[in-house]
Amino acid sequence: MTSSIAENELQSHFEATISADLRVEPRDWMPEGYRKTLIRQIAQHAHSEIIGMQPEGAWLTRAPSLRRKAILTAKVQDEAGHGLYLYSAAETLGADRGDLTDKLLDGRQKYSSIFNYPTLTFADVGVIGWLVDGAAICNQVPLCRSSFGPYARAMIRVCKEESFHQRQGYELLMTMMRGTDAQREMVQESVDRWWWPALMMFGPPDDRSPNSEQSMKWRIKRHTNDELRQRFVDMSIPQAEALGVTFPDPDLRWNAERGAYDFGEPDWSEFMQVIAGNGASSVERIANRRAAHENGAWVREAATAFARRASTKENAR
Ligand code: FAQ
């Protein structure tokens, strides 16, 4: 009886915190469903950042100049940093990083659909910066106001770095568009391949998104998948016009009544296939991640042994 009264009080305090738009912190009581949803979303996000190093990383040894190589190295390193902030945020909820990695490797946790596509030309580096980081920013800026403190704070820094990534991608594409016909064709061909997968990054349509409603109530998510997808389409079209490229969608047109662009339906059966692990590069991405994890085992063992020794010494004092 007493414990259920206490539980009710905790639940009311949690709900009051959410409705007052305050942050829930790791020390606070929270419903198990809230904790589970956050671990699921933050882990998936962290895995995406780490797996997301691979498509562009594949071009590090083939960048066309030292300048482009230095920029790309810095960007790929930033993605590693984002993954680490996010794993740390998940750990504040009681998740174990090793366990999250196991779940990624055996397919129990997902990573973003977008990283299951191959990078075929150097223009893909620019298009990933422009469209993929652009979509990531569109999705993540509202997450800076997410109700869970460590996630919201991690997102502030991540978004600043993603904005820089987006600009470097756009600048790379601008440079190529000022180049030869072959370079312009390479950019357009790359945009044609990435446009639809970029729209799918926002997740399934709202009427097929099982988690959105509850995540919005808990203010983990601030907008639905479709709202953010629309925002991304509206912001990308003037950028494409300035660049001189088109998007491969015959239904794309301004709708004056809605004050927004109409656009076609992404191929959701492709999306379902990709998130089920059947994307063009899915097997390669996980195999590379598994190899990196196994090759790094000695580093983790050494770091753990060092930390254990340091704490034994500290206790002996
Ligand atoms: N890919 O009910 P919903 C980046 C899953 S970071 C794979 O709508 P929710 C930076 C979803 O998990 C990109 N799976 O789910 C970068 C759920 O399955 P589950 C990552 C997806 O959570 C740039 C099921 O479908 N960003 O790009 C996807 O409410 C360049 C039903 O979906 C984030 O993770 C998808 N696209 O909404 C790095 C942002 N969409 O878990 C390197 C944070 C949905 O029940 C280079 N995450 N699913 O088995 C979010 O905002 C949300 O989790 C959504 C999905 C919007 C992704």
Automatic annotation (TrEMBL):
This is Ring-1,2-phenylacetyl-CoA epoxidase subunit PaaA. The lineage of its organism: Bacteria, Bacillati, Actinomycetota, Actinomycetes, Mycobacteriales. It comes from Rhodococcus tukisamuensis. One of its GO terms (biological process) is phenylacetate catabolic process. It holds the Pfam family PaaA_PaaC. One of its GO terms (cellular component) is cytosol. GO terms for molecular function: phenylacetyl-CoA 1,2-epoxidase activity.
